[in-house]
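Researcher: Good morning. I'm working through a list of sequences from a screen, and I'd like to move beyond sequence-only analysis. For each chain I'm collecting a predicted structure so we can compare shapes side by side. This is the next one on the list. No need for commentary yet; just the structure.
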Amino acid sequence: MSLPGPVPVFDPGEIFPDLEELRTRATDGDLPGALERLVAVGRGSASDQVMAFDVLAESEALDGPLAAHLAAHPDDRTARLLACLRRVRAGSDRASALAAEQDLIRLVAEDRSDATAWFVRLVTAAAAGLGPSETRRRYERLRELAPEHSVAQRLMLRALVPAPGGAWDEVLAHVRSATAGAPDGSPDWGLVPLLHLTRWHVESPTGETDYLRQPEVRTKLEEASERFTAAPCTSPYAAVEVHTDFAVVTALAGQRGRSMKHFRALGPALAPGAWELAAAHREDLETVRGAAVAEGRRR
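Model: Good morning. Structure tokens for this chain:
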């Protein structure tokens, strides 16, 4: 009998009180204060900043306040970037991405050193299907400005898979490059489970897990998991996605103890990507997750 785990929490605002406060300020009358907070987050981490941007960009309640703010402050750069990302997230199609791209070109022309503007251009490249070459061009420019941008690295990995026109050798080279000098606790180690989850999903359409259970794949997952958990994650926001990827992929690979370690670290929190990708194995994953949480309560 499977052990019930806590109800999954996918909303970053529910997981991180500071992100919920940011969203509440933005939608309840203090958008200028929320925009100032976004700028402050960016001073510490460009990668964390775009995660905070995304929390706002996913909110329909932002549309009215943001439009009113831009009407009064048309030159507010942070608000303009947020509006571009909101357009892409709200539309979720090529036309929306290309419409946002026109504004982004102007923003980049005004300040080519703005890492967030280049990140949103990376998002539009993926959404508009501009292909690996153009995506890489934007990624390389972003890397010059923010070398440790873990969110951008994940986007680049997805752009290099064979379906959009890339190749697995390119994906492997990207992961090796990003993890070559990564310290313990770096979100960069999360590229390893993302690679193998993505390849498994592409090459095993019926859901069999033989690929993930290959000794060389299990070894790579173990090594990356050890490096990631050897020190506190350098980004609490990124940690949720990385722990979820490791928890799911190691469970599918038959590494139950390692999977439980990552599920315990997550508690009720989960990132939707890997969890949804492995939907066909949900019952087994819930069993491992429930056992992990129960063991954590006994400690």
